[in-house]
Design brief:
By secondary structure, the chain is of the alpha/beta class. Helix content is 50%, strand content 11%. The longest helix has 31 residues, at 130-160. The model is unreliable at 12-20 (pLDDT under 50). GO terms for molecular function: oxidoreductase activity. This is Short-chain dehydrogenase reductase family protein.
Length: 315
C-alpha cells in the first residue's frame, strides 16, 4: 500500500481542482507502458482517451481503468498508427468532439511503437520490401505517426494556449550511439521536410549494403528502432522551435505555450524489452511516473529537451 500512498502525496497538490475533461490522449494505451501511463493520468484527474488498434483489447483496458477511477476518467478511440487513414480518422473524430477545446487534447502521449529485433528475417518476408521496406515501416510507426499527430494538435494548442506533448523515445536514439555521419547530418537538419528526406536516404542505404568503413548504423541489434527514435528526438526539437517562433509573435500564448519533450523511460519490463535487460528493468508503473512528471512539471521539464530520470540528457 506504500506506493499508492506515496504517489498520492506527491501528486495531489498538482492536480487538485482538475476537471474530468482535461483530456490526455495516449497512443498504444492497451498494454505495457502505455497502459500504465493511461491508468496514472486517470488517477491524477485527467480524462484519458486510450487508443489502440485492437478495439476489443483497448475497450477491456478502458473498462478496467473506469472500475478503478470512475466512468468519466477514460474512454476508447480506435487508432492504428501504422495506417495513415486511421490517423486521419482519429484526428477527425477529435475535431468533432464537442467536449475537447479546439478539437485537441491538453496532453498527447506518443507511446505506440515497434522494435524489429531481427531485421534480416523481417526483410526476407515476402512483401516486406526488403531491408529498406522494414526500415520505412519502423520509421512510419515510431517517427512519422507521432509527427502527424503533433502537427494535427499543435495549431489548436497554440491557439488556445495550452498543451503538453510527450514523445516516448529511447536512449538508443542518442546521437552518440549512431554512425558518425548520421549523427552529424541529424544535427544539421533544420526542417521536417529535410528530416524526412534524410530518413528516406538512410532506409535506402540499408538496402544497398554495408556502411562506409564497415560501420553499422547503430551498435545494437535493432538499428532501425535506434535511428527512428533519434529522428523522433530531432522532430521534437524542430517542432518545439516552430512553436517558440509562433509564440514569440503572440504574447497571449506565451504564458501557457505548448511544450514538446522526448522521454527515455529507461529499460521497462514490457514485450519490447530486451530479454537480457528485463531482470533489472523498471516496471511499467515505475516508468510511468517520469512520464506523468513531465506532463505536470512545466517549470522543471522544458520543451525541446530529451529527458531520462527527470534530467535533460544529450540528443
Amino acid at each position: 500500500m506504500a506506493f499508492p500512498v506515496l504517489l498520492f502525496v506527491l501528486l495531489f497538490p498538482l492536480v487538485h481542482g482538475f476537471t474530468p475533461r482535461i483530456t490526455a490522449v495516449v497512443t498504444g494505451g492497451n498494454r505495457g507502458l502505455g497502459l500504465a501511463i493511461s491508468d496514472l493520468l486517470a488517477e491524477v484527474g485527467y480524462h484519458v482517451i486510450l487508443t489502440a488498434r485492437n478495439a476489443e483489447e483497448g475497450q477491456a483496458r478502458v473498462a478496467d481503468i473506469q472500475r478503478r477511477h470512475g466512468q468519466n476518467r477514460c474512454e476508447f478511440m480506435a487508432l492504428d498508427v501504422s495506417e495513415p487513414k486511421s490517423i486521419k480518422a482519429f484526428v477527425d473524430q477529435m475535431k468533432r468532439n464537442e467536449e475537447m477545446r479546439g478539437g485537441v487534447p491538453h496532453v498527447l502521449i506518443n507511446n505506440a511503437g515497434i522494435c524489429v529485433r531481427d531485421e534480416d528475417a523481417a526483410a526476407a518476408v515476402e512483401g516486406s520490401g526488403g531491408r529498406e521496406g522494414v526500415y520505412r515501416s519502423v520509421f512510419d510507426i515510431n517517427t512519422w505517426a507521432p509527427v502527424a499527430l503533433m502537427e494535427a494538435c499543435l495549431p489548436g494548442m497554440c491557439k488556445h494556449g495550452f498543451g503538453c506533448i510527450v514523445n516516448i523515445s529511447s536512449g538508443d536514439g542518442e546521437l552518440a550511439y549512431l554512425h558518425s555521419e548520421v549523427a552529424k547530418r541529424l544535427k544539421r537538419v533544420r526542417s521536417l521536410a529535410e528530416l524526412k528526406q534524410f530518413s528516406d536516404w538512410v532506409a535506402q542505404m540499408q538496402q544497398e549494403g554495408p556502411w562506409p568503413r564497415g560501420e553499422g548504423l547503430a551498435p545494437v541489434s535493432w538499428p532501425a528502432y535506434s535511428f527512428s527514435k533519434a529522428v523522433l528526438n530531432a522532430a521534437t526539437r524542430l517542432l518545439q522551435s516552430r512553436v517558440d517562433a509562433l509564440v514569440s509573435k503572440d504574447m497571449k500564448v506565451r504564458a501557457h505555450q505548448p511544450r514538446i519533450v522526448a522521454i527515455c523511460p529507461g529499460d521497462v519490463n514490457t514485450a519490447m524489452c530486451d530479454e537480457h535487460a528485463a531482470h533489472d528493468a523498471l516496471s511499467p508503473e515505475q516508468a510511468a511516473l517520469d512520464v506523468v512528471w513531465a506532463v505536470l512539471h512545466s517549470k522543471e521539464c522544458h520543451g525541446g529537451y530529451f529527458y531520462r530520470a527527470r534530467r535533460a540528457i544529450p540528443w
